[in-house]
Amino acid sequence: MSEILSFKNKNWFDVFPYLFGGAVIFFMVLPILIIIPMSFSQAQYFEFPPRSFSFKWYINFFTDRYWRGSMFLSLQVATITMFLAIMLGTPAAFAIVRGRFKGKSLLQALVLSPRIIPFIITALAAYFFYARLKLIGSMVALVTAHTVLATPFVVITLSAALKGFDRTLELAAMGLGANRLQTYLRVTLPVIRPGIISGGILAFMTSFDEVIIAIYICGTSAVTLPKQMWDGMIREIEPTITAVASLIVGVTILLMMLMGALGKSGATTKESRKASAS
Amino acid sequence: MFFPRQLLKGWSGAFPSIPMILFMVIFLFYPLLRVLLLSIFDPGFTLKHYAAIFQSPIYLKVIAMTLEISLLVTALCLLLGYPVAYVISSVKGKWGTWLMGMVVLCFWTSILVRTYSWMILLQRTGVINTVLLELGLISKPLGLMYNLFGVTLGMIHVLLPYMVLPLYGVMEGIDRSLPKAAQNLGATPFKAFWKVFVPLSLPGVGAGCILVFVIALGFFITPALLGGGKVIMISNLIDSQVTQLLNWGFAAAISLALIVVTLAIFFLSNRYLGLARMWGG
């Protein structure tokens, strides 16, 4: 009897957390996926389920001058931001992981601070700063402001990759006659490359999604895609946004899969290194 | 070299980070300083903007509401996120990867897109109201957004991954043979979970709660879009003070207060909980 009871008890606790957890994950993903079927609706106003199928809102997005312009601007800003963030973040990650100096924890706090300070305050500061320089509505303002927000992701991702890096490989290369540059290019870089690329993707996504600072510094001459969406959302719900949102979800999934693949290739290099070391 | 070598000695390891530090000083810290100084110079030294925060019941109400919403959202995120992290850390292999992928997808999907989805779901002619009406469960559409309910729901959805990820990080490192040992010694599975597993997961609970609470304090987009002007949080107050009233001094005073609270929570928790480890910093 007691055995049956404990079996029952076990069953209860084996099933309930999974049902509840599964339901919550469903709640996390469903709202993101529901916009995809909605984006193929033909109706001007929302209808669920969509009664007719069309590419109307996608065509509208790609043919409308403003939507297309803001998409290209966002792609440009995000790309430049990504490269700047990699250029600034990579050496900083090396300093954090390998350097020995006083106040390293201060540097770490400094790196994280753009992600901790509430965005609205950063936006306010950016608005005040770029307005005095007459840079509101310029790509320079967008790129520099976004780079500040994106660099932490490069530093964090790359620090993690560097921590797992076996430095005896570098010593071995130098012992075999390679100079510092050769060692870096032939040994260090190939191993940490997945980390740099992952950090770069995160930096790209940070800039491509950024809206609060954009609201303040876009002006009327450099409207990014999120700013354009924001304007549409506060005025009225415009169906074209549904198509844009679906495209963004699609791109996010693709980039995530790319990062997943990078993570795997990183893991294999680690394993192959272990294998060759033993 | 202009600097004496002796002075540089302890710092040379930090040199590679100089470009980044310079960049951040020019494009973040200097602008922040300039704006925050507006709160005490108008044009001469004054504390009137700080006094104004405490003199108006409306502003105090906004601060109270922000704290209330942030606490509520943190509690609900813990309640919903704990089982998710538990399940993902318990499930092995392909399923675990898939479930984790869904949480990460949620994490990386733009806040604007997610808030927009909630607008589609919650509005009067939206998905939820349509389905409930068709099923005959309600006779007229429910007011699901432009109120506290909509804002709370939207914020929970945005912040859940910030709870799940640190919890998962801690739970993954917990030795599962410990609760099992408790079971072998006669504890029920739930008791073994409650007395052994939960205490071991507390560092994750602390990190997740602090992260969610701190980010919630500074929320702007979700209350602006799902609150419909009825739910005003501190960030929305700062925004309207600048864009509608051009009251820079007051906006700067509130900003400084919000920054101080945010950084204090973060650094205290960092000291006692080691929050920075989670960021890999």
What does this structure look like?
The complex is a heterodimer of chains A (278) and B (281). The model of chain A is unreliable at 1-6 and 267-278 (pLDDT under 50). Chain A is built from eleven helices and no strands. In chain A, 81% of the residues lie in helices and 0% in strands. Chain A has 278 residues and is mostly helical. Chain A has a single domain (65-277), classed as MetI-like fold. Chain B has a single domain (56-173, 184-279), classed as Orthogonal Bundle (MetI-like fold), CATH 1.10.3720. Chain B has helices at 5-9, 18-37, 48-55, 57-90, 93-108, 111-122, 127-134, 148-172, 177-184, 189-217, 221-226, 234-243, 248-273, 275-279. The longest helix of chain B is centred in the N-terminal third of the chain and has 34 residues, at 57-90. At the A-B interface, helix 1, helix 3, helix 4, helix 5 and helix 6 of A face helix 2, helix 4, helix 5, helix 6 and helix 7 of B.
CATH architecture classification name of chain B: Orthogonal Bundle
CATH topology of chain A: MetI-like fold
Helix content of chain B: over 70%
Major sheet characteristics of chain A: none
Order of helices and strands of chain B: HHHHHHHHHHHHHH
Dominant shape of chain A: globular
Low-confidence stretches of chain A: 1-6, 267-278
The CATH C-level class name of chain A: Mainly Alpha
Mean pLDDT of chain A: 85
Largest interface: A-B, 94 and 89 residues
Radius of gyration of chain B: 24 Å
